[in-house]
Amino acid sequence: MKHTGVMLAVVAFASAATAAEIAPQDVVFEGGAVAGSLTGVPGDPASGRKIFLNRKKGNCLACHANADLADQPFHGEVGPPLDGVADRLSEAEIRGILVNSKMTFEDTIMPAFYRDEGFNRPLEKFKGKTILTAQEVEDVVAYLLTLGE
Amino acid sequence: MRTVTTLLAASALLLGAGAAVADDHDRIEIDGVVLTLRAPAPAYLENMDEVMSGWLFRSEETQALQLDDFDNPAFVFLDQAMDDWSRVEGSEGKSCASCHEDLSGFAGLKTVLPRVVDGGLQTMEDIINAERVNRMGAEPLKYDSAAMNRMVALIGLQSRGMPMNVAVDGDAAPFWEQGRELYYTRVGQLDMACANCHEDNYGNMIRADRLSQGQINGFPVYRLKNAKLNSVHGRFKGCMKNIRATPYKPGSEEFKALELYVASRGNGLSVETPSVRN
Q1: Could you give the CA distance from residue A33 to residue B147 in angstroms, rounded to a whole number?
Q2: How far is A5 from chain B (nearest CA, A)?
Q3: Confidence class for position B25, pLDDT limits 50, 70, 90
């Protein structure tokens, strides 16, 4: 039982960190765009790049080709290539598309990456969960902003 | 050796990963039987002009395995099903072979399944279990099991080359509507419907896989991925889990209705059982 104190401290710290985050249902859209950071912590593009690839996280490559990842096999064709996306879209637009793409593209196949309710028959282990955490969304936003001229 | 001829534009087999879907393949021939790979979409498919076999979307290597029954790994399981066919089981001391002289009398059966019997949908699995229970006094097989899937494949093979032709109207209509609803309903954390992938995006790569129309005329299919025969409901379950949705149970009313609807989307395509996929 020696570790209990440490555990409690960690839990308290974690919930303090989440308190600073904007919860999925509190995200404010202007049209399809989301202006402010979800966390206040700058996104890490290197982490965002990994999430883009990771099949259990963003898995963005499943649907989007991306020349920056030319070393990776199997670029999807379901969505448009994301080359030069930073020249086409603003940070707020990109964030909005990641949080809930249906606010920008009605009826899209692209999943909402920061939404945790309103799903039909989600698998038990994903119930009440978002696909990406708020910070992971910020990391992917930061990464996409590097895909410009 | 049985002859394998690829009819029409055999030289234009360009389906390697990354290549475009070959548009010039209409038919293949396996063991002297011609299979139709493309057919005009039935009128009730509002968003599609043509229905296409899943074979067309696979790599050249995978396609080749289905062209010759000696290369097709599914036939190992069909041999096992032949053994099951003549094995005595149950309280009546009978095997399937005790009453059925041969299997060829089942030609055409797969093309009309699922169908409505006594107010409910009947699948091939239901027929096989009814035969076991009512005529042999044997235990039913688990709905999605190796022994069931190979017997479903053996009886399905008798219809190879015949066009799928399930009924969608009359007393099938409410079940078909239910299946249609399921096909277009978004489910799971990824919030997608079958149609998002298999109607809106067939022909497109989704990571390493080229999306097909999700047809079931070739089921049960041998998959290289798991080296066994895969049932229709097993495949539905897999697709639902991939989009992080709680699947319906194999043998459930929902999956039977979905099976009827998906089968109807392939009306006009040849029965291809047992097909080979990755």
Answers
A1: 54
A2: 36
A3: confident
pLDDT in tens, B105-129: 999 999 999 999 999 999 999 999 9
DSSP reduced 3-state for B16 = coil
**Is position A104 within any domain?**
yes
- Rounded CA-CA distance B258/A35 in Å is 42
B79: containing domain: 74-157
d(CA B158, CA B104): 6
* Percent of chain B with pLDDT strictly greater than 90: 91
Give the minimum alpha-carbon distance from A79 to chain B in angstroms, rounded to a whole number. Answer: 9
Kindly report, residue by residue over B206-253, the tens digit of the pLDDT.
999 999 999 999 999 999 999 999 999 999 999 999 999 999 999 999
Task: Mark whether B167 and B152 lie in a shared domain.
Answer: no
Query: Residues B230, B218: contact at Cβ < 8 Å?
Result: no
| Of residues A109, A119, A120, nearest to B196 (C-beta) | A109
Phi and psi at residue B193, in whole multiples of 5°? -105, 160
| In-domain check, residue B43 | yes
Let me know if residue B211 belongs to a domain. yes
Do B186 and B265 reside in the same domain of the chain? yes
Mutation target for A interface from B189, B206, B242, B258: give the one with most A CBs within 10 A. B189
- Position A18 scores a pLDDT of 53
Mutate to test the interface with B, among A52, A101, A119, A130 (most CBs of B within 10 A): A119
Please tell me the pTM assigned to this model: 0.93
**CB contacts < 8 A (A, B):** 66
Shortest CA gap B39–chain A (Å): 24
How many domains, in total, are found in chain B?
Answer: 2
B-proximal residues of A, 103-142, CB under 8 Å: 109, 111-112, 119-124, 126, 129, 131
Contact partners, residue B258, CB within 8 Å, separation at least 6: B179, B182, B183, B194, B236, B248
Q: What is the ipTM of this complex?
A: 0.88
A89: domain CATH number?
1.10.760.10
Compare CB distances from B189 to A55, A109, A131 and report the shortest one's residue.
Answer: A131
Structure tokens at B90: 């149950």
Is the bond leading into A73 cis (omega within 30 degrees of zero)?
no
